[in-house]
Task: inverse folding
């Protein structure tokens, strides 16, 4: 109906706020009303009659079984309205009175641009009537009788708007039950509006199932079995059929003939009536007319989404409704991203990957420390040293790995100019990267939840015969820890230890060292201690201390100590106020989000708004990734402890997966309502459409974005080093063996999911609090930039780069969506940690090669899926 109130001047453009007219609450609804004096022959009100002291009758608009409708002028507001009067013959019928009141009660719950607005119900001058929006036009039924059928483009336009109006009613739980062309009005602007909710009812509260117009009723409704939203979808299909063809779908003259046609789906082909009907239109209408309700479209918006062209998301948002996850997944360009954008993404990935690896190798610690000796050679060297000092028993288990000494790097960075620092690092002494090796007479069964053996897990001082060594990258001994036997062997008593073997294994010349009093007391048992002072070859400016201990003539301990080594067992850990603030800040954020998510998730679940299926799949993904990270990253032995580690890993996965599940159910419906386009490819992926062109295209763009982010990060690292920043410490633990690489990637996937979802939800919360799109984006960018700057030793530089990175992040998140952002986070975390060297023939290039292959393979596979079925050069040659 025409939006007359909004087109005319006056203080009440919102028609829902029209005041109540005079009424008599004490009067029963079932009480008979006397015929008014203003009635004329044929029960028609005379033009000019004044009703309820407010409405002046202009003309009769129509008459039906449920009443007479008049055009009237609201004298109070100076607007035209339509008044629907209950026929005098039914004024004393309580059933008709209840239905009349019910029409108002139900219709007022639905507010939508394509639904005729019902204002209020009035009782005055012996009349019971309702006021509603006046439509200066005609109904769709009379229009079709006059012109036959609508042109294809106009029929599509009407179809989407009728779907939007019906969806608005269904969202409120209202079933129309009498959807037909005669109950769709076309206003003066050519806009369709649903009207006549005289038979409408709330879902689940219907007794008279068969009421309605037989030619437009669903089979289950006419049979009296049930009436649901799917019944309205059936009626919608009949209406759409008539709009596109100009003929009724079912032309049976009797009820028996209608039943037979509906049961057999005996509907003439639309193409046989109108040859220009789009096959996609016919397909969706056929689904609407399926006799089986379960095979019909799930909603009116799903029908709109299936129609060719248009934007179903825009229709849902225009309806003021939250689009369902299925509608979001069905939205977006059917062909995915363009071939040009796909090719550009691959090109950016390839070129940016080469530049990122190159810059990463320049700024990494591994580019400054000599890494010439392969890991297997270091492993063999460690075994030789262990045997040389007397530990020759065949172990039951061995383990190895790498770690960095952050304290040594910080000391060198603060004590020497950058050139001198890099020269010391390149000499390998003191070493900033160490190789560790462990052997044990029992299986190495770590205690930490991750399950991976480290230099100190399981505890390296508890089992007799357990030996732990640390070597520098050239193979020189740095640390030796060996556990003596639990029962003394008197035969070895008094035998002196040969420390020359140990010092030579450390690359030291005993003649150049000065004896000193030992001051270090280690955890292993000993009966003699020694100590020396001096320097390491190649680093005469760095004073060092060397201490050792022996038991019955066999070395059980040796280690190098620099000025950076502190007695950690004697002093409390030092945490700066900034670090303490950030720690408690994130704890508080986690707890607040967890509690708020629980409450919101419960509310959304009660209201049926949450995407439970997507949330459960997200949680399952986190659990599976956690299990795979444990499987590849841990040391697994046949023990109860290892089983406990598995249970703990799965427990961690379930906890974090459950937390993400709660947060997703809590906030995803609001994001879907406000920014549904950010979830199109994400929702499709959760629904299992991995090879979908849109999913692949957005993921491909995310890979390119991650490479660009990684390149920016590497540039930031190099610039920071020009201001005496420390070299970037890569994940040297990845050098221990190939199995660590997939475990690392699985862990990064979990982090990317958490960061991506958390960032989207924080961005949305900023929007909720500030109620302004631009201000919320600025607030999010400034907040995240400030946190990054506080945690950096160069806050001004970190702040500048973070400002740019988070601005890009917000743009990408809102433009391309969550999936693109998550892939960008994953790739931007993968590349910097793996950039070890540009010499791909070197043994330590394995992580770099692995990450490069992963990113390139992912990019190429996604490119193939994103452009499936399209010519590679089609877009470029298209004029």
Result:
């Amino acid at each position: 109906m025409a939006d007359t109130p909004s087109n005319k001047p006056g203080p009440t453009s919102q028609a829902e706020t029209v005041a109540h007219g005079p009424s008599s609450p004490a009067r029963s609804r079932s009480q008979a009303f006397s015929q008014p004096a203003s009635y004329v022959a044929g029960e028609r009100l005379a033009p000019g009659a004044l009703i309820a002291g407010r409405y002046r009758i202009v003309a009769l608009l129509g008459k039906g079984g449920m009443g007479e409708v008049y055009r009237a002028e609201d004298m109070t507001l100076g607007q035209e309205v339509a008044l629907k009067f209950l026929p005098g013959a039914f004024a004393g019928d309580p059933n008709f009175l209840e239905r009349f009141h019910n029409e108002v009660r139900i219709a007022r719950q639905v507010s939508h641009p394509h639904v005729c607005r019902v204002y209020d119900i009035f009782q005055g001058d012996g009349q019971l009537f309702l006021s509603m929006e006046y439509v200066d036009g005609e109904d769709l039924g009379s229009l079709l009788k006059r012109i036959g059928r609508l042109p294809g483009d106009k029929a599509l336009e009407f179809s989407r708007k009728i779907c939007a109006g019906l969806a608005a009613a269904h969202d409120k739980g209202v079933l129309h039950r009498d959807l037909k062309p005669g109950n769709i009005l076309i206003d003066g602007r050519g806009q369709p509006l649903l009207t006549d909710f005289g038979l409408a009812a709330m879902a689940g509260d219907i007794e008279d199932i068969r009421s309605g117009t037989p030619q437009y009723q669903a089979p289950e409704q006419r049979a009296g079995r049930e009436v649901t939203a799917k019944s309205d979808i059936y009626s919608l299909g009949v209406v759409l059929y008539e709009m596109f063809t100009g003929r009724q779908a079912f032309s049976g003259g009797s009820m028996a003939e209608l039943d037979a046609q509906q049961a057999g789906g005996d509907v003439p082909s639309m193409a046989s009536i109108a040859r220009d009907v789009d096959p996609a239109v016919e397909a969706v209408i056929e689904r609407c007319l399926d006799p089986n309700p379960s095979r019909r479209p799930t909603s009116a918006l799903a029908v709109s989404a299936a129609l060719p062209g248009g934007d179903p998301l825009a229709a849902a948002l225009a309806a003021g409704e939250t689009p369902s996850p299925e509608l979001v997944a069905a939205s977006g360009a059917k062909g995915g991203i363009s071939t040009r954008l796909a090719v550009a993404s691959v090109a950016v990935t390839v070129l940016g990957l080469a530049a990122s690896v190159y810059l990463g190798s320049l700024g990494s610690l591994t580019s400054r420390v000599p890494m010439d000796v392969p890991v297997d050679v270091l492993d063999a060297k460690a075994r030789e040293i262990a045997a040389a000092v007397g530990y020759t028993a065949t172990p039951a288990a061995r383990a190895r790995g790498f770690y960095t000494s952050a304290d040594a790097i910080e000391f060198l960075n603060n004590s020497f100019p950058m050139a001198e620092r890099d020269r010391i690092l390149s000499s390998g002494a003191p070493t900033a990267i160490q190789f560790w090796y462990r052997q044990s007479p029992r299986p190495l069964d770590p205690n930490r939840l991750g399950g991976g053996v480290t230099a100190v897990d399981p505890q390296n001082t508890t089992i007799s015969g357990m030996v732990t060594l640390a070597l520098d990258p050239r193979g020189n001994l740095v640390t030796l820890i060996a556990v003596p036997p639990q029962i003394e062997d008197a035969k070895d008593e008094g035998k002196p230890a040969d420390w020359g073997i140990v010092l030579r294994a450390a690359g030291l010349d005993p003649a150049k060292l000065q004896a000193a009093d030992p001051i270090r007391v280690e955890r292993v048992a000993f009966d003699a201690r020694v100590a020396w002072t001096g320097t390491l070859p190649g680093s005469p400016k760095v004073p060092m201390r060397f201490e050792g201990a022996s038991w019955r003539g066999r070395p059980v301990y040796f280690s190098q100590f620099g000025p950076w080594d502190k007695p950690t067992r004697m002093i409390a850990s030092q945490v700066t106020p900034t670090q303490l603030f950030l720690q408690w800040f994130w704890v508080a954020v986690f707890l607040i989000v967890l509690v708020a998510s629980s409450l919101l998730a419960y509310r959304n679940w009660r209201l049926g708004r949450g995407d439970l299926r997507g949330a459960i799949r997200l949680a399952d993904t986190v659990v599976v990734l956690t299990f795979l990270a444990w499987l590849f990253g841990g040391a697994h032995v046949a023990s109860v402890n290892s089983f406990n580690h598995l249970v703990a890993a799965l427990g961690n996965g379930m906890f974090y997966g459950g937390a993400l599940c709660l947060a997703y159910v809590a906030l995803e419906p609001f994001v879907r309502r406000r920014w549904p386009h950010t979830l199109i490819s994400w929702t499709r992926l959760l629904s299992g459409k991995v090879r979908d062109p849109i999913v692949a295209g957005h993921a491909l763009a995310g890979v390119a974005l991650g490479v660009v982010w990684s390149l920016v990060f590497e540039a930031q690292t190099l610039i920071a080093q020009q201001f005496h920043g420390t070299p970037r410490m890569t994940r040297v633990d990845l050098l221990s063996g190939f199995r660590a690489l997939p475990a690392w990637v699985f862990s990064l996937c979990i982090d990317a999911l958490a960061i991506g979802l958390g960032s989207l939800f924080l961005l949305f919360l900023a929007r909720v609090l500030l109620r302004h799109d631009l201000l919320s984006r600025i607030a999010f960018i400034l907040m995240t930039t400030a946190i990054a700057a506080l945690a950096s030793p160069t806050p001004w530089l970190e702040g500048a780069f973070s400002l740019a990175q988070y601005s890009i992040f917000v743009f990408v998140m809102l433009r391309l969506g969550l999936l693109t952002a998550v892939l960008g986070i994953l790739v931007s975390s993968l590349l910097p940690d793996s950039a070890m060297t540009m010499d791909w023939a070197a043994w330590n290039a394995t992580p770099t090669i692995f990450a490069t292959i992963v990113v390139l393979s992912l990019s190429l596979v996604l490119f193939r899926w994103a452009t499936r079925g399209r010519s590679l050069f089609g877009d470029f040659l298209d004029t």
Q: What stands out?
A: Residues 1-43, 874-879 have pLDDT under 50 and may be disordered. The chain is about 45% helix and 15% strand.
